[in-house]
Predict the structure.
Amino acid sequence: MLYELNRQNDMKKESIGKFLGREFLVSRESHIDDTVITVGEHHIGEGFSIIAGPCSVENEEQIFSLAKIMKSKGADFLRGGAYKPRTSPYDFQGLGEKGIKMLTEAGRNAGLPVVSEILDPRDLEIFKDVDILQVGARNMQNFPLLRAVGKSKKPVLLKRGQGSDIREFLLSAEYIMAEGNPNIILCERGIKTFETVTRSTLDLSSIPVLKKLTHLPIIVDPSHATGYSELVEPMALAAAACGADGVMIEVHTNPKLALCDGEQAQNPEEFEETVIKIKKINRALFE
Ligand code: PEP
Ligand code: MN
């Protein structure tokens, strides 16, 4: 039966719908209508939202020019990491506070609200002008961070952990909501499987499953899910077709020179083409 899962502890089959019953704030049963998160003039969870920008803020010139380009090509939000959760401590770690300043100023200049990843609850003050706080895949079960962004009341983009199932994903969202913050956007970004050809395996079935289980909006990140720019467009289109509320796409003006994740970055022309096709899918299926 759909939505049955084996709980690891007792291997007893249990319906996740029942598990996430009325007492859970994230559960569809506790809130029948879709949650819509309003940021400026944008409504996430109503229509289709496009978040785009570089993996990392690299310098002023890069983020200011990219912000304007993203706006002109159809993005609703500008992304850019300043605190990067890199696997190796010797890789580029981001520009930190300076990077956050550059991002918020570039967003304001281009007329785009901004999204950036927070790694440490002690940095919340630095993120005061960031419109959406991103909690990355590696921190999906960092419970003190979840509680802190929950207390902040700012919109939170919560990414699915690379080794986390849907129940764990929803319970992490519950941590945020239990602190009184209902402004949560879930983000499917792929999970680790035995497949090595792609960076992760994009679990697109989580979209219709989550739509059934929760009232929260859910977007897809086809960039980290696949790891290769040529795979970003087909997966972004598939995300739109299966009912996602938006996508988050990494874009760089010169992907070969990117300080982080260049292989998966689209250039602005590729991004523009993808946005045009997403609009066609949405028109054909949902209007
Ligand atoms: C990111 O979006 O910058 C990022 C690091 O992604 P993830 O947490 O999904 O790996
Ligand atoms: Mn990245």
Q: What stands out?
A: The radius of gyration is 18 Å. The longest helix spans residues 268-286. The pocket of manganese (II) ion (ligand 2) is lined by residues 55, 224, 250, 260-261 (CB under 6 Å).
